[in-house]
Write a structure and sequence with these properties.
Layout lengths: L18 H11 L4 E7 L5 E7 L3 H6 L2 E3 L16 E5 L5 E2 L6 E10 L2 E2 L4 H14 L3 E15 L5 E3 L13 H5 L2 H13 L4 E6 L5 E6 L2 E2 H21 L3 E3 L13 E8 L20 H12 L1 H8 L5 H4 L14 E6 L4 E5 L4 E3 L8 H17 L17 H6 L9 H10 L1 H7 L1 H19 L4 H7 L4
Parallel strand pairs: 1-6, 15-16
Antiparallel strand pairs: 1-2, 3-4, 4-6, 5-6, 6-7, 8-9, 8-11, 8-12, 8-13, 8-14, 10-11, 14-17, 16-17
Length: 460
């Protein structure tokens, strides 16, 4: 992969003193004329307003104003006060694919208070709960995505026409022939300080995964939003489409977004690790209790980590012609990728999520569920290292393992019943999320698909 020649000089590091002056110097040094003031809606969609660079001080003090009633899920009316995004200087970053631009994020206010439906505020409230205990959640988010295009007939196909192997996982040609995109994305990420450590071709034609170093939960969410922006724009500049759709077709693997988690103390020590664990998984009592909380709230978590109608096309027990890597069973085990929680020794990997998740809401929910397990000293069930995909229904039932929700409606019902997540994330947030997603389910459920026409047109 190619490298930026002067990476460190292009990374904004907010100093403790004179931060605003240093930020202005940083912007001037890099020829930045406009700053995109950004936040996300409940879907995780990135919303922006372009602000001239010389107005940075106003962004950090009064913020940029948005009509909240125009934002999906924000539950605001035309007569309500402005939604003000007050910028956090530590999030200032260049947009290497668009010279002259930078972006910045912060926290949303309405009136004098933090707005409870701003996803970044929701995550901030949960990380604050951890901070009160001297804890931080470190997370590594692993995004999978497709690099696609439309052919002459308008059909969606892989961007690389030679990417046709039946089993293209780790295919070297898939990497080398897509090098212009992958190198462009790598350069954009490393230019702002993300430490990319591996890139691979995934199981489906045109599917890739790029991994960058873990960080604190809030920073990981910010990084994921930057990653999505960069991936889509670098692809667009090459005439390609970067898609994070969870499931592209019935015969291809889905786009997951696994969340690696570990709790650390003020010294940075991993509180999930215990080398004396008799199971050999290297987990502490704290980790087991955190896992128990995840399992306890798994059906409701599914609504936030798998938030689209399409998500549940991925959560199936097998893909025709190949194994599914998406878990559907509420279980955990040592390096077991068929369970919803995998243990890669000394930490945990929550595997149910997909690339349509809102990373702020998803991580906030994981913290809330995990802390519930810790606070109530819950004990998880026994770990399982079996391949659940090989087992029949009776065999799975004998293990005492249940299934995740099979569609968005079932997941939303589970979220509505989960009083812990409602209290932790906020009743208004949960109600607004449910309203937004139930409208999505009704729209889908009322749509007549091509499959139905083909199957039933002359059937009866």
């Amino acid at each position: 992969m190619s490298h930026q020649p002067d990476m460190l000089s292009s990374v904004w590091r907010a100093p403790r003193e004179n931060a605003l002056e240093e930020a202005h110097d940083f912007l001037e040094r890099h020829g930045v004329n406009y700053i995109l003031a950004q936040f996300v809606d409940l879907h995780g969609g990135i919303k922006s307003k372009a602000v001239p660079a010389h107005c940075l001080k106003d962004l950090t003090e009064s913020g940029a104003g948005f009509a909240g009633g125009a934002i999906l899920g924000f539950d605001m009316r035309p007569q309500d006060p402005e939604f003000m995004m007050v910028a956090d200087l530590s999030t200032l970053a260049l947009m290497p694919w668009q010279p002259g631009y930078a972006c910045i994020r912060g926290h949303g206010f309405v009136g004098d208070g933090h707005y409870p439906l701003d996803p970044r505020n929701v995550l901030a409230a949960q990380t604050a709960r951890l901070a009160e205990r001297g804890l931080r959640l470190m997370t590594g988010l692993e995004p999978e995505f497709y690099l696609l295009k439309r052919d002459e007939d308008g059909a969606v196909v892989p961007f690389d026409a030679t990417d046709t192997l039946d089993k293209p996982t780790y295919d070297y040609q898939g990497l080398t022939r897509n090098a212009p995109f992958l190198e462009g994305l790598y350069d954009a990420l490393t230019a702002v300080g993300l430490e990319v450590y591996q890139i691979d071709h995934e199981d489906a034609n045109g599917q890739f995964e790029l991994n960058f170093k873990y960080d604190e939960a809030m920073k990981s969410a910010d990084n994921m939003l930057f990653f999505k922006m960069a991936a889509k724009e670098v692809a667009n500049n090459l005439g390609a489409i970067c898609s994070f759709l969870p499931k592209l077709s019935a015969t291809t693997t889905g786009n997951g977004m696994h969340v690696h988690c570990s709790l650390v103390d003020e010294k940075g020590d991993n509180l999930f690790h215990d080398a004396t664990d008799p199971t050999g998984m290297g987990l502490s009592i704290t980790a087991y209790r955190f896992i128990a909380g995840i399992i306890e709230h798994a059906p409701a978590l599914c609504a936030l980590l798998c938030p689209s109608v399409n998500s549940y096309k991925r959560l199936t027990s097998g893909t025709p012609g190949s194994p599914s890597w998406a878990p559907v069973f509420i279980a955990y085990g040592d390096n077991n990728r068929s369970a919803m929680v995998r243990i890669p020794y000394g930490r945990i990997e929550v595997r149910i999520g997909d690339s349509s998740m809102n990373p702020y809401l998803a991580q906030a929910a994981i913290i809330a569920a995990g802390l519930d397990g810790i606070d109530r000293e819950l004990r998880p069930p026994e770990p399982h290292s079996v391949n659940f995909y090989d087992l029949g229904g009776d065999e799975i039932a004998e293990l005492g393992v249940s299934r995740l929700p099979e569609n968005l409606s079932d997941a939303l019902n589970a979220l509505q019943r989960d009083s812990l997540l409602r209290e932790a994330l906020g009743e208004r947030l949960i109600d607004s999320f449910l309203k937004l997603k139930r409208a999505e389910w009704r729209a889908y459920h009322g749509t007549v698909s091509e499959w139905e026409i083909n199957r039933y047109f002359t059937f009866y």
